Amino acid sequence: MTRSTPWRPAAGTGSGANVNSDTDGNRGTSDDHGTDSGGGTDSNRGADSGGTDAGPAPDAGLFGPASVTWRVHGDPSMIVAGIRALLLQGVHPLAMAGVAQHSAYRADPWGRLLRTATYVETITYGTTAQARQAAERVRRVHTRVRGTEPTSGRPYRAGDPELLLWVHVSEAESFLSTARRCGLRLTDSQADAYFAEQVRAAELIGIPAEDVPDSQAAVAHYFTRMRPHLRVTPQSREMISFILRPPMPRWVSRTTPARPAWSALSAIAAGMLPGWARRLYGLPDTPLLDTAACLGARATRTALLALPRRLRQVPEPRDAVIRPARTRPARPAPEARMIPRDAPRRLLMTLPRQRAQESQPPPQGRRRPAHLTVAPGR
Description:
By secondary structure, the chain is mainly α.
């Protein structure tokens, strides 16, 4: 497999991060934007094209607005893709044991989901320094996450590159495959580019670049190699039940459509799992379920795309899109004033016909109307 040159952090900076490493000690860590076609996002919106670029270019982060990562992670389908990623990660016994024994998802499910989403947003749209800082916080937490998987008795540690690789590949494959099945139009070469870009995110969490699948074929080969080691444990079944029906305040579940909406999203995500993963969970693996899940996912994405951009776009992409404009140097001041210093300070606006009349001398003995005069300077 021909691999492109791996991305390396700049000297003197830290690296590392993981989405599924939320623990009680990690409270502070953890959607094409409305179009199906085109080369990316509106990265230059608001930029002053008339200004002069003096100094270094603004930091666009790990990927930048021209990347496939910005298109995929900015798509409304990410809400379904995130749930699918959690379900897929749960079929690895050791990864599931770490989540069950060290995560706060039972006591604070919505907080954990928010922290995970915040981490993904920061890695995707933040500056390079922000991405490294977020990753470094999670890597520090990994040093304390270790234990024993209760079913097999096998020990695990969150910093194990093999476990980190499973979490990373499951997440990246879920994001890309869900977006494409929901209607985001990407070519196969763009899909390969997405996985190649994600090698940078994997390196931040401590995975060697040469071990990270960087194409669709490499990802498919990785899952084939891992399938003999995957199974659903009691902890996995508890998690899927929790995801399908998470706790909600009584007033929310009774007075809003949050409960049926979340149940529908979770069912769609489960239906979009690979067939072998659905069989592990005891779910049906039929073409009818695949079709129903895709139709539901496309309908959800279409409904979200109908919303105004400010409502369906998370803050991080909006900030990242306008960051280059904010960091562009100010336009130099003009050398001469457009209005002379000795000109009247206040002019009364007149209509064109009135100005034509004003240019002719008034009849003798007749005073000029007040509204045609130029107010004297003060």
